[in-house]
Amino acid sequence: MSKECDPMHEHLLIGFLLTMAGGALDAYSYLNHGQVFAGLQTGNVILLTLHLAQGHLEMLGRYLFPLLAFFIGVFATVSIEHHFDKNDRFLWQHIVLIVEIIGLIIVAFVSPHLKNIWVTCLISLIASIQYQTFRKVRGRPFATTMTTGNLRNTAVFLWLALLKKEPENLRKALETLLIVVAFMLGAVISGLLTPIYHNATVLFISADLACVLAILLIMQRHGQEEAI
């Protein structure tokens, strides 16, 4: 798919900022709320089964409830897409970003007053909304809240470029690697800010998503003006 044909929410800059938010959110959740991941549910499944195998039944809720919240978030996001996908006035992705931004602001204020398990449920819900909504960059599958698939795609594109002599795949490999770096950068930023701002660190993630929303709105307005 050519750059000109990419939907606005599939642009590389949008993917970079969203993946940075995803990495930051996972690190924030792990560091501040009981070592539970926000979007990396594979990690939660592993920790859940390890505690189950060791007989630590009192730990199961810590990982099981965020898994259920993630499931509910995906279900809700599909419903949002179904009802608003054909709307000509705004993108349904705008609604999702607004929900995320508001949700993270709520997390910042309620975190000191709630048990970790309920905060991580809310964070997992937010992460699942982003994961389900933004699934492609430049027409290619990618993930904003985890990085295993992105690493795989980087290796595949690089193999195609170097061994199959398909130079167009080198650009794809570099772009996908940039997405991986974005996830790492988000985690690093969250790790550096957490000792200073603690629960308020999530507001920086919310600001990142607000930038994404602003860029999408500007791109949409520019596109509408060109169509006139």
UniProtKB/TrEMBL annotation:
<feature type="transmembrane region" description="Helical">
    <location>
        <begin position="200"/>
        <end position="219"/>
    </location>
</feature>
<feature type="transmembrane region" description="Helical">
    <location>
        <begin position="173"/>
        <end position="194"/>
    </location>
</feature>
<keyword id="KW-1133">Transmembrane helix</keyword>
<keyword id="KW-0812">Transmembrane</keyword>
<dbReference type="InterPro" id="IPR010699">
    <property type="entry name" value="DUF1275"/>
</dbReference>
<feature type="transmembrane region" description="Helical">
    <location>
        <begin position="12"/>
        <end position="31"/>
    </location>
</feature>
<dbReference type="Pfam" id="PF06912">
    <property type="entry name" value="DUF1275"/>
</dbReference>
<feature type="transmembrane region" description="Helical">
    <location>
        <begin position="90"/>
        <end position="111"/>
    </location>
</feature>
<protein>
    <submittedName>
        <fullName>YoaK family protein</fullName>
    </submittedName>
</protein>
<keyword id="KW-0472">Membrane</keyword>
<feature type="transmembrane region" description="Helical">
    <location>
        <begin position="60"/>
        <end position="78"/>
    </location>
</feature>
